[in-house]
Design brief:
Largest sheet: 4 strands, antiparallel
Oligomer: single chain
CATH topology of the largest domain: Rossmann fold
Number of strands: 7
CATH superfamily of the largest domain: Malic enzyme, N-terminal domain
Structural class: alpha/beta
Strand order of the largest sheet: 2-3-1-4
Distance between the termini: 41 Å
Helix content: 25-40%
Number of domains: 2
Order of helices and strands: EHEEHEHHHHEHEHE
Length: 218
């Protein structure tokens, strides 16, 4: 039998009479379907009713549906909601931009933005190499894709590739403390991809081509 995976983890919220001893019935149901119980949390509890979140790993989406159906068939138990934990993790995306400096006063604003920032801009205009020292450039990479070869999923397009690109950016930050940003291009024309990478280059220290049939930069 195939192994369960956190990638197919679900949380089932159920309600049941306290007298029914639902925990025992739930555990038996999960074991009968080969699901791996990872957490069981009491969300609400009263004299006669209890609400429980059951978290378990399953083999795949079809197996998850079978597990939820089996739980729903336990006498006296009502399933309130079934949540896919992987989809919950992706809600709103997995990465964000945060400011490295605080903006609390007018003095802060004057140095971070106008008028003080103009002095930094002019310094870079006079000496372009200073961009690596005075901006995010030296620690920022672009993760570029045309969505044509995404993690074995094939040519699914740039929008569908974005969750993978977000994941790559998160790994860059976690393991190398490098700020990476997804750049998903709505074209599969090689020359157009190359040109796009060229014209966004001022922002990034490096552009990394990923999940493209024709890696355009390295």
């Amino acid at each position: 039998m195939a192994s369960t995976s956190p990638g197919y983890g679900i949380t089932i919220r159920v309600e049941a009479p306290s007298a029914n001893k639902p925990v025992s019935a739930i555990t038996t149901a999960l074991n009968s379907q080969g699901a791996a119980l990872t957490a069981l949390d009491i969300v609400e509890s009263s004299y006669d009713r209890v609400v429980i979140d059951i978290t378990c790993d399953t083999i795949d989406a079809e197996h998850a549906d079978r597990v939820a159906k089996t739980v729903s068939e336990i006498p006296g138990l009502t399933v309130r909601k079934v949540s896919d934990r992987t989809f919950l993790l992706h809600l709103g995306g997995k990465i964000e931009i945060q400011s490295k400096v605080q903006i609390k006063t007018r003095d802060d604003l004057s140095r971070i933005y106008t008028p003080g920032v103009a002095r930094v801009c002019m310094a870079i205009a006079e000496e372009p190499s200073d961009a690596r020292r005075l901006t995010i450039k030296r620690n920022t990479v672009a993760v570029v894709t045309d969505g044509s070869a995404v993690l074995g999923l094939g040519n699914i397009g740039p929008a569908a590739a974005l969750p993978v690109m977000e994941g790559k950016a998160a790994l860059f930050k976690r393991f190398a403390n490098v700020d990476a940003w997804p750049v998903c291009l709505d074209t599969q024309d090689v020359d157009e991809i190359v040109r796009t990478v060229q014209i966004i280059a001022p922002v990034y220290g490096t552009q990394i081509a990923r999940t493209a049939r024709h890696p355009c930069v390295s």
